[in-house]
Amino acid sequence: MHEKREKSSDLPPLPDAEGGVVMRFAPNPSGPLHLGHARASILNDYYVRRYGGSYIYRIEDTDPKRVVPEAYEMVREDLEWLGIAISDIVYQSDRLGIYYEYARRIIGIGGAYVCTCEAERFRELKLAKKACPCRDLTVEENLLRWEQMLDGTFIEGEATVRIRTEIDHPDPAIRDFSAMRIVNTTLHPRVDATVYPLMNFSVAIDDHLLGMTHVIRGKDHIANTRRQKYIFDYFGWKPPHYLHYGRMSIEGLVLSTSSMHQGIADGTFTGWDDIRLGTLRAMARRGIRPEAVRAAVIEIGCGGTDISFSWDNLFAKNRELIDKGSDRYFFVQDPVHLTVKDGPEQTAHAPLYPGDEERGYRTITFNGEILIPGKEMEGNDLIRLKDLFNIRVTGENTAVYAGDSLTEIRAAKGPIIQWLPPDQTVPCRILTPEGIISGVCEAGVAGCVGETIQFERFGFVRIDAVADGCVTAYFTHR
RNA sequence: GCUGAUAUAGUGUAGUCGGUCAAUCAUGUAGGACUCUCACUCCUACGACUGGGGUUCAAAUCCCCAUAUCAGCACCA
Q: What's the CA A47/C1' B58 distance, rounded, in angstroms?
């Protein structure tokens, strides 16, 4: 029993890992981290923790057009929130000199050439398995061209360094892919440069130089892995072990950073932490705990199958984490006013957490006037005001005291609902992915900013802010 | 089109050397117990090996074909 439980929470072992591993998380700094990044960073983190070793956070900022300067800081915050144990940070933009050196070397040994064909022209040749004229240049000519890329003789789009593979390789994705290019129309926020490595080149060089032993990444990189192996081969390096996990789609969510970016720009979203986005900061704001994300990701594992991420599974893990720590309060959605006749003056003592009196009680004093959720009026005439007494609805806005008996209400199968006296509430709006729900809640909620609480019979929420006496909450989950 | 990866219940996962798998665990759904919440806890039920061949005494597990899904074929990562 115990063995099984442990087994299911353990991911399969990694080859050649017993002596420790060196792994990496290598995002492009184009925005904050989202669920997809969480998977990559957590899976790698899991194995580094399991086997020991180091975990390098490598910032792949070699495309000046795709660098969002604020992202450097956002990513670091997100990793911290996730609890990723980073041992080193490497900026690829600091390492351009290294890439230049290795580019020169690989050209020098005939493993690459400088191509001046137009991209479209090369593409046609490649698909026809035909070499372009540049491929036959001598090493000396290529080295000269390489110097000309660096000294500005060539400008953006005029030359690219290609790794020599097999021009008739069965997989067109492999044939003579690019390794270095010129970008002089966009400035890089961190460095002054015009020649940049393409991902496959810088990744291969760094994976070797930084001593990577294992690489876990999405299967969209399978072709890149094959390409990078050419570079390892040319230099005589031993490549790391690779593991490719499947694509992950998320129910009702757009994960692409660029579309999120656009949505924020045009006002569709309020920001990177808009509740409708799959960013980690959005989830944090909703009251999702990083441990829940980690548990969900570990459970998904490294399988190569394409999966659709289910919020239900994440929510279940989160509920397990936050339930005990979340105090209970009343929230009355779409309040309807009722005047209750003949009700005895009573004060309700509702536990902050049922089953644990030690945590204390909220006191709500009945004074003849109450607000109840509008939808509870439908089809119900006998209603139990939770922790108070029963009432019988007699009209649009009137009701009459109907005794204290709890057994009676149960026998009648009447609902036991939340309620509040109008003078003991604060307005409250709850932001959900589907829209805003408004109502009133207990005044005590105003003291819970930053915490997750549970609105009874409604669900868990995180109290985000209190302004002008009005509570703003984010819906976590039921 | 070419190259490759994957295919277990609504969702996620276990099952890696074929038999002990009419298939694990979680989530979900339904019902029940408990409870002054539709939460928590507990019980019960429901629900899957993509299809077709083959190898074998025996296949979810091996082989082949088909189908489906996804990815790559960028001077993005």
A: 38
Which residues constitute the domain of residue A448? 328-477
How many structural domains compose chain A? 3
* Gap between the Cα atoms of A399 and A370, Å rounded: 10
Rounded distance in angstroms from the CA atom of residue A304 to the C1' atom of nucleotide B4: 12
Q: How far: A304 CA to B67 C1' (Å)?
A: 19
Return the SS3 of A292: helix
Q: How many Cβ atoms from other residues are within 10 Å of residue A264's Cβ?
A: 16
Nearest nucleotide from residue A61 CA, by C1' atom: B77
Nucleotides of B under 7 A from a protein CB: 1-8, 10-16, 24-28, 35-41, 69-77
Is this prediction's ipTM beyond 0.85?
yes
A9 in any annotated domain: yes
Regarding whether A457 and A353 lie in a shared domain, the answer is yes
Give the residue from A461, A385, A454, A386 showing the smallest Cα distance to A429.
A461
Name the closest nucleotide to A455, judged by C1' and CA: B37
Looking at the fold, whether A179 and A224 belong to one and the same domain comes out as no
Does A458 lie in the same domain as A398? yes
pLDDT, one tens digit per residue, over A235-274 is 999 999 999 998 888 876 766 787 888 889 899 899 999 9
Residue A232 CA to nucleotide B33 C1', Å?
64
Domain membership flag for residue A322: no
Q: How long is the CA A110 to C1' B75 vector, in angstroms? A: 20
Q: What is the pLDDT of residues A179-219, one digit of tens each?
A: 999 999 999 999 999 999 999 999 999 999 999 999 999 98
In whole angstroms, what is the distance from residue A332 CA to residue A65 CA?
49
Helix ranges (DSSP H) in A169-279: 199-209, 222-235, 257-265
CATH number, domain of A348, equals 2.40.240.10
Q: Are A115 and A254 in a shared domain?
A: no
